[in-house]
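[agent] plan:
  1. take the single chain provided in the ticket
  2. run structure prediction with default settings
  3. attach structure tokens to the ticket
  4. add a short note for the reviewer (M.T.)
[agent] executing step 1
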Amino acid sequence: MHSTLNDAALDQLFRTARTYNAFTGEVSDDTLRQLYDLMKFGPTEANTTPARIVFVKSQEARAKLGPALSEGNYKKTMAAPVVAIVGYDLRFFDKLPVLFPHTDAKPWFEHRAPDNLAWVAMRSSALQTAYLILAARALGLDCGPMTGFDNAKVDAAFFAGTSIRSNILVNIGHGDPASIFPRSPRLPFDEACRIL
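[agent] step 2 finished; step 3 output follows
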């Protein structure tokens, strides 16, 4: 039997966690490995786990990323301790003999139309981005996810010659409370949900 997390843990993961626009501190490579080792256990369709992540830390990598950012995201992203480029591998099915060993799942995907494959990969990598955010929060970090960037430029700079395409960027570090806006409203249960 699992027990409910205590209020402090629920606050850290959800209720008081926020999207930050400025960060302080550093994030070690070891912490990034811990983050991945947590997020990788989140479920995806047929355990496809299509997310491929580039953790941008160096000035050289930042210089490659900068031209792809929208004007509103440039300064905060260049200043973040780490930027996770979460992409998705369109050939994710090549890993299924290892990732889904109890049956031959590769044929389920390998002959699908490219649009359908992209949808499957993007959907599951978006799930994995959410797991990345929760894993970061569980490790005491804060995040600023965004889609305000030129995917084609990111793909050319970081994934050229591969079957990987960019999906979402996530700034990671220790959030500066002065950088957040008042929390925006959320829909109440009765407006967003039905129990049938």
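[agent] step 4 note for reviewer: Residues 114-138 form the longest helix (25 residues).
[agent] ticket updated
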